[in-house]
Design brief:
By secondary structure, this protein is mainly alpha-helical. It has 48 helices and eight strands. It folds into seven domains: 202 residues, P-loop containing nucleotide triphosphate hydrolases (Rossmann fold, 3-Layer(aba) Sandwich); 48 residues; 73 residues, Arc Repressor Mutant, subunit A; 120 residues, Serine Threonine Protein Phosphatase 5, Tetratricopeptide repeat, CATH 1.25.40; 116 residues; 79 residues; 56 residues, Arc Repressor Mutant, subunit A (Orthogonal Bundle).
Amino acid sequence: MSSVFVGRARELAELERSARDAARGHPAVALLGGESGVGKTRLIGELERRLADEEFVVLRGEGVEQGEEELPYAPLTSALRPLVRERHPALGELSPGSRAQLAALLPGLEEPVPGPPRAEYEGQLRLFEALLELIEVLCERGPLVLILEDMHWADRSTRTFVSFLARGMRQERVMLLTSYRTDELHRRHPLRPLLSELERLDHVRRIELAPLGRDELGEVLADILGRDPGPGLLERVYSRSEGNPLYTEELLAASLDGRGPAPQSLRDAFLLRVEGLSAEAQRAARVIAVAGRLDEAAIAEVSGLEPTALQAALREAVAEQVLVAGDEGRLRFRHALLREAVYDDLLPGERSELHVALARTLEARWESGHGDPSLAGEVAHHYAAAGEQPAALRTAVQAALAARDVRAYGEAAALAERALELWPRVPDAAQMIPLDRVDVLALAASSHSIAGDRSRAEVLLRKALEELDPASDPGRCAPLLAHLGRLQWQLNRGLEGIATAQRALAMLPADAVRERARVMAWLLRTRFLRGRFRQAIAEGEEALGAAIAAGDLNAEAEVLNTLGMAQIVLGEVEEGVGRLRRSIEISGQIEELDSVAYGYANLADMLSLAGRSAEALQVAREGLAAVPRRMTSAHDWMALTVSSHAFEVGDWEAARAHLVPPARLQGTSLMFCLRCEAELALGVGDEALAARRLEEAEPLLADSSEPQWIGALGALIAELRRRRRELPAARAAVQEALDRLELCTDDVMRIARVSAVGARVEADIAQRARDLRERAEERDAVARARIHLTRLAAAAQEGGPVERAWHATGKAELARARGRNQGPLWESAAAHWEAMSRPYETAIVRWRAAEAYAEADQRACAAATAQAAFETARRLGARWLEAEVLGLAGRARLEVGSPGEDGVPSPEPSAEADPFGLTPRERQVLGLIAEGATNRQIGRALFMAEKTASVHVSRILAKLGVQSRTQAAAVAHRLHLGSPV
């Protein structure tokens, strides 16, 4: 081997830069790729050496080439084991819950493994958050570099954690460095989607190592040979190795200096090196090739070598750079390619015998209780590779259960599926394992469900139910049905899921109090999510009694949460607030921090719906403070809740500060984030950003059946299209949202918001139709606006302050649609919004009020109202609204706002900018001509008679020296004449 580090200066500098960024509190991710043997491990070693003398903590683990499903978290556990072995003080600083989670993954922490999580899907998330807490504690002692090598072999759970960590990084002093072989990444390799996902994040760098150049290879040869290789040798080796450092070393190790017949492949070069070992060393190497890595005691047992002979053989193999001593005294091949070559060279019978011997040796350790959870997976792998079907079935189930215990649900699903495939091939399979076929089907289904493959989970659950008789075995059928109902809900088949869960509830015996309580709690939550508030209250008291009778505090907290929300929506505000507070209190007592966050978020949202905006923001901030940052999903949700309510009360800087980057979110959290970003973008007038965010949200919205998303996003989509003057499309967005809402909800607040936007759209359509004298279109728009108002009136009757504010706004919009714009109606709406501390909506309706007063020639009222709208718009940063108010002021000749920055009057256009001598009023008219406005439309926009507008147009044509309005518009566009109106 070469003892010097050659080349790679640029790549090493990039990695060092990432590490320095991490040390300054800017987390970094580096993706290091390259072909086999190109020097990735050597580069990582050099980085470790550079960082060794500094304050960095370096943890390094690697993937193992074994069946992906058998060794969950292999790279992570190998990286973290030294912390347990050394009793690192950081482990003692973890919260008890996190230590318990990590004990399942890292034997030696001496903590009890936690019981089943309240909700199955939380299991892996809790483990990931415990790992994140460990990383945060380590980072408090110094910057951390976490290295995960050979990610092309990494299991699904490790890949999921890497995604979680990369997306969840905030200000931790951590650098994540992963390496992988580019020549292993076939088109469907599971690492490819992860790499694509990570590359979209701002703090991720992707680095690919190329082979060494000719001069660099010359340095390697000179170091190995101890002399200048000369141009002949260099050229021969370079042409054969193509600059691959490992291939170069193997050519020299096999005494091939580039002369004679070249090995056909790198594999042949490796085998030449191994064939130079003694028979005992080769025998030990073959055992390790099958095992991957193995300690000396296991090698002795499988190989049959005496201790003295074995030690000599191993020493020889290490001296010849075939084997190296790894962590925990286990030996492995110097390079994975070398191991692959030896394994592939084994005869089929020889390979099977070694797999069986290894399986028996490791199984004995597993059964004796000595060893970590990964042993179960290794045993299952060796029996499966040997074709020992009975043993493979038995150990596949054991490994699936072990994978489930460490929250590796994807691997548990794959192992359970393997057991199901083996089941019909093994006589008396049910007598071999403690689970029957239904249990294994349920295990596979639940694991698939948590891992995200809900469709496969549904298929497996149905197969399990087919093997049971509901009449004779209701106790087993009912839980499977309840699970199936939840899956159907998640697959957007809500009614079917509810019906299935109701069958499960009816089937449960009366003494199954805990199971009944949990099914009832879930059914109650679906009532609320579908907007069936009265039904939720009607059923809620029974569900609460069942939860209390069962002593199930989780179910009790969930029922109280649902009941509290339903009561607030239906006007029993104080009673509902009390129940939500009690739900939060219970969740805190049992340390269910997710439920604590859930309770705070729901309480804030319900207070907002009740018109108590400032209190809602206060509760959201309280919830954010109660959720640790390590609980990334709950913390992100609470941050977005703060952002949403800060926007409502007009603190847009806080709203912006609490947004979460969409790239690190998924599912409902992503939809929430996109909604917040789109709302803020529309607020400030950034229509392009709003359009991008709403476009990203539409696929998620299509799969949702919850009114909170259908209503809010539908209203935003319609408003964006309205502002872009895409009025038919805006009308369609309103109708689509209302169709989906009215089919599934009596959530009147969501209906009210969409209906109010619908009335606004119809008023715009009616106004345009009047300008164009399209009477039929105008009548249709007015009729539609009237229908929206009817819907708003019903919502106001059933709802609270928010619904009444939307109703008042809708009445003013209907008057505008009829061509009878009335300032007092808009002022009434402003009073409603102002009473709830909603400045943005207040400013919008005041702008409309000023417009109505200007049309009625009530100039003093128009000026005062416009000034109030302008000041609020400027304070908020609502640039679009500020421009609308100033445009109105210019058209109506109102004194609004400052004449220029810092009170300095805006300069008139210079003679050079406007060589035609147009007056400011004529520039306004020209701007409308450029937009294609008729004289009637110009008069309406600028509050002048149509005849006066005609006179202005004639003067403008004369000054520009053109014959038509089209030519005038062309001049205006070319010279940037005209004034915005």
